[in-house]
Design brief:
The chain is α/β, with parallel strands linked by helices. Helices cover 35% and strands 22% of the residues. It binds glutamine. Residues 354-356, 382-383, 386, 406, 461-464 line the site of glutamine.
Length: 551
């Protein structure tokens, strides 16, 4: 029978529930248990696809095209397995389902209520992944903080499930904060006691407490927390601030979080977790032999979470290259031809980020021109690739007004245009071209060499696309559409010849980079950045003198 672990959070948000859940899952997986993680989010949006990154950080996309919370990215990066539509459920989706059923008359005239109808639907969804004996353990992360009004139906659903399944089959891990008061030089347990008390008022008691802290928890303090929160003493786990999120699984292993969970679930411990590959990765990450500086050009750069998967993919790729990757955030809104040299001249490579809408778009185009003309390694992702095509059209093909119809619907040269299938869509949520699609690469392309294959699958999230009417003009001038969808002919990858590294991709490779399998495009990009740095160091005068500023 599948066992369930619930991860809740108390005291404050942003304690890193996703990382703790993913770390625990990693350890259980490394012991040989078939493990997956899902997240339940208490907001009313049906999914985060329509949310602004400033609200909610990056929208992560799964193979099967679900637009999900960014924590699913952590789950995949840690476990090296795919998640799906079923792994992220929101209150909006629960209510949508229940209300649709009500309209169908499925409740036979009954009053539809939070309890039991909403809680039953939450329970059904929680146990969905556990059906068919696919997993030994399903970890469910509950978004939000205990005590939030919108979390209540989830706490109640978990309470009922735990009662139905029994303590051997369901376990609650509560993540909490033990603040350190500098003036008193003391760690304080009261907020944790209150948050546990609040949970128990709703009939749910945590079995394990993971305590985020800046200072080590000494033995007496652990005992005090255990006593007042009604958990066993070994179930008070210290989670000190870590230098990188990738050290957390090893920290949790040291604290025996996985063993304690297995013990409480009455499960055999299995083998000790095999974390060899993980440790190798961590060593490379901690002891780099070189350093590169990558410019990340985007319009949400002030918010770290907006480009989460890209930043993590750069970290994975850096470790593979034994190279520290310093990311310099460059706000595309404030980038102009006049200040491009000043802002970009000391970068080893430039990555232009995905995005929507016109804000900051000209800055992206300026950065791409700079990278192309000065032979700085360039990687354009989704909107970054589209703007690379616009830049090339304007400055090489001499179509001065070229644009994407997303930014200028009346452009005379719509080199990027809305996909045919998108034209009649009026609903916003979940209607983009989403999820994994195939792509055929030209065998002589850089991308094929990097992937080591001419047939790849990558995830998408877009409405606009390269306009194939311009294909010949681009090819003749040296920008080659080297990757296409074999069924639809949609352009997925472009490369510029006579350039050390210039790759634009319509898809999002960042979603598929994991600790164990860093994404080959990112790995090659960082390698190109290292080589560019070496070349630059060999020059007295950088090659970017005749650049955008004069252009
Ligand atoms: N806005 C562009 C489109 O819809 C690019 C999307 C993206 O970068 N994810 O096609």
């Amino acid at each position: 029978m599948t066992k369930y672990i619930f991860v809740t959070g108390g005291v404050t948000s942003s304690l890193g529930k996703g990382i703790i859940a993913a770390s625990l899952a990693k350890l259980l997986q490394a012991r040989g248990f078939r493990t997956t993680i899902q997240k339940f989010d208490p907001y009313i949006n049906v999914d985060p696809g329509t949310l602004n990154p400033y609200e909610h950080g990056e929208c992560y996309v799964t193979e099967d095209g679900a637009e999900t919370d960014l924590d699913l990215g952590h789950y995949e990066r840690y476990l090296n397995t795919f998640t799906s539509q079923a792994n992220n459920v929101t209150t909006g989706r629960i209510y949508q389902y229940v209300i649709n059923k009500e309209r169908e008359g499925a409740y036979l005239g009954k009053t539809v209520q939070v309890i039991p109808h909403i809680t039953d639907e939450i329970k059904r969804r929680i146990t969905l992944l556990g059906k068919d004996n696919k997993y030994d353990i399903v970890i469910t992360e509950l978004g939000g903080t205990v005590g939030d009004i919108e979390s209540l139906p989830y706490i109640e659903a978990v309470r009922q499930l735990k009662w139905e399944m029994g303590d051997d089959n369901a376990l609650v891990v509560h993540l909490t904060l033990i603040p350190y008061l500098k003036a008193a030089k003391e760690l304080k347990t009261k907020p944790t006691q209150h948050s546990v008390k609040m949970m128990s008022e709703h009939g749910l008691n945590p079995d394990v407490l993971v305590c985020r802290t800046e200072e080590p928890l000494y033995k007496d303090l652990k005992r005090k927390i255990a006593l007042f929160c009604n958990v066993t003493q070994d179930a008070v786990i210290e989670a000190m601030d870590a230098d990188t999120i990738y050290s957390v699984p090893l920290e949790m292993m040291r604290e025996r979080l996985d063993e304690i969970c297995l013990q409480k679930l009455n499960m055999p411990k299995g083998n000790d977790p095999d974390m060899t590959k993980w440790k190798e990765f961590l060593n490379k990450l901690r002891y780099p032999k070189s350093k590169v500086t990558i410019g990340l050009i985007g319009k949400y750069v002030e918010l770290q979470d907006a480009y989460k998967s890209i930043l993590e993919a750069l970290i994975h790729a850096g470790a593979m290259n034994e190279c520290k990757v310093e990311v310099r955030n460059i706000h595309s809104e404030y980038l102009t031809p006049e200040n491009a040299i000043e802002k970009l001249h000391n970068l080893d490579a430039i990555l232009v980020a995905p995005g929507f809408g016109s804000r900051g778009i000209e800055g992206k185009i300026d950065a791409i021109r700079y990278a192309r003309e000065n032979k700085i390694p360039f990687f354009g992702i989704c909107l970054g690739m589209q703007m690379a095509c616009v830049e090339f059209a304007r400055n090489v093909l001499k179509m001065g007004k070229a644009h994407s119809t997303e930014m200028n619907p009346d452009t005379t040269d719509a080199v990027i245009a809305m996909m045919e299938e998108q034209k009649n869509i009026t609903q916003m949520g979940g209607t983009m071209r989403l999820g994994s699609y195939e792509c055929e690469l030209r065998s002589d392309s850089r991308a094929a060499a990097i992937y080591g294959s001419t047939h790849i699958n990558e995830r998408h999230r877009h409405r606009y696309e390269f306009n194939n009417e311009y294909m010949d003009a681009y090819e003749k001038a040296g920008m080659i559409p080297v990757g296409k969808n074999p069924k639809t002919g949609l352009v997925e990858v472009v490369e510029v010849q006579d350039h050390p590294f210039y790759v634009g991709v319509q898809f999002h490779p960042e979603y598929k980079s994991t600790v164990e399998n860093p994404h080959p495009l990112f790995v090659a990009f960082i390698k190109a950045a290292k080589e560019a740095q070496e070349r630059r160091n060999g020059h007295n005068h950088p090659v970017y003198e005749n650049s955008v500023a004069e252009g």
